[in-house]
Design goal:
Chains A, B: Pfam families: SpoU_methylase. Chains A, B: Keywords: Methyltransferase, S-adenosyl-L-methionine, Transferase. 2 copies of one chain form a homodimer. The first copy, chain A, is 42% helix and 11% strand. By secondary structure, chain A is an alpha/beta fold. Chain A folds into 2 domains: 146 residues, Alpha/beta knot (3-Layer(aba) Sandwich); 70 residues. In chain A, the strands form 2 sheets. A 4-stranded parallel sheet of chain A has the order 4-6-3-5. A two-stranded parallel sheet of chain A has the order 1-2. Chains A and B meet through strand 3, strand 4, helix 3, helix 4 and helix 5 of A and strand 3, strand 4, helix 3, helix 4 and helix 5 of B.
Chain lengths: 240, 240
């Protein structure tokens, strides 16, 4: 939750008590970075001030409720909270095994469900939270772009089409790089030595963008080989 | 990954070895449910057969790469993998602290980054994976709707607008429900007793949809009170 800028965590009657040293370790510093935890005896206490409530559940019960996915829930939470008396939206997650009790679900404005595999529904609670907060974080970043400089580098992506020919596998390309670098090494290309890793990364990074087909990898390896042999020949000529 | 239908996990030189009893516990049965783990000494080995590679990173390095978010990465992975010789797309996640080494990033077709708070960037690896697989799972569910019956209940959501008046807090509504149920109890409404919880949940579920303002809660509580007192009076009349 802290990764995506949320800081108000309310625990209802936590099984292992609170504070909890294990949670402290797992939090990776989130408490020092602003996450405030409040522990409540009952759900009612925890809902103090909450004006809009979303319940996460993989079990869509018989009770008639509006159902949405993580995107819809994030939009609803975003629209129903914030400054200027807009209130507080809360998202409620239940224990990993038992889930939320019916009486908690009954209190919700909205059910949120994820497209989990029906044969493997039960999502770890922390991960269920992460899915929601990521959707919320997307809206937050779109609303406040100046706070998220890395997002400026995200460009609309033209989905790379499949090449007509067989795509190369990454291990083929790996071998092609090694071949190329082996010959470059022999040719004294990598200088000074301490810059070798950076020079290799830059070369690989540029070449990988070509999205090689299987055939092209063969062709390029042939070219490397020809250059290497040619250089050998040239040397022989010079040595003459 | 299993929750969203992915089953091919490749580990490169795992710090704590493999098999790992702790991972087994955390997996909640995913290995029995089809997740196949292969351990590799090197990244090159792990990339066998991979034709499209996406690297997850919060640190956008100097190397020139296309950058996308989780949605774009899921679309790219979905478009570049599957049957009919379409190849295998892989998403690569690095250690929580050190992240991916530069030489791994250099091999990627695409960088994936999330809108994390710049002051709290480092996401737990399992959660980073979960964010991606959820986006992938959305595409998968959209492509194969018959496999995801619960998703049929997800309806486009009209974002609930803010009421003009102050919204009620959930604890106010909670107290209103308790008041209502207390009076219904006294009136003998809940019968048979074993159905009480279900009857309460159904009532709460229906009433909560009204999205109460603060004022409306007061009004409704006044109404309950009036009915309760009125009934008292009526009884007195009858007892006369």
């Amino acid at each position: 939750m802290r990764n995506f800028g949320l800081t108000d965590l309310r625990l209802v009657s936590p099984r292992d008590g609170w504070p909890n040293p294990a949670a402290d370790t797992m939090s990776a510093g989130a408490f020092d970075a602003g996450v405030v935890v409040n522990v409540h005896e009952t759900l009612q206490d925890a809902l103090e001030g909450v004006t809009y409530l979303i319940a996460a559940t993989a079990r869509l019960r018989g009770i008639e409720k509006r159902v949405t996915d993580a995107v819809g829930a994030a939009e609803a939470a975003f629209g129903r909270s914030g400054g200027d008396g807009k209130g507080i939206a809360a998202v409620m997650f239940g224990g990993e095994k038992a889930g939320l009790p019916n009486e908690a679900v009954a209190l919700s404005d909205l059910l949120m469900t994820y497209p989990v595999d029906p044969d493997f529904k039960s999502l770890n609670l922390a991960q269920a939270v992460c899915v929601f907060v990521h959707e919320w974080g997307k809206l937050n970043a779109a609303e406040n772009p100046s706070n998220f400089p890395s997002q400026n580098q995200v460009k609309p992506l033209e989905i790379p089409s499949m090449p007509d020919a067989n795509p190369s596998t990454r291990d083929d390309v790996f071998r092609m790089f090694e071949h190329f670098e082996f010959e470059l090494e022999r040719a004294g290309y990598f200088f000074p030595p301490e810059k070798t890793p950076l020079m290799k990364d830059n070369l690989r990074s540029a070449l990988i963008r070509a999205d090689w087909t299987e055939q092209e990898v063969q062709t390029f390896r042939g070219a490397i080989k020809a250059l290497a042999i040619g250089r050998g020949k040239a040397r022989v000529v010079r040595e003459d």
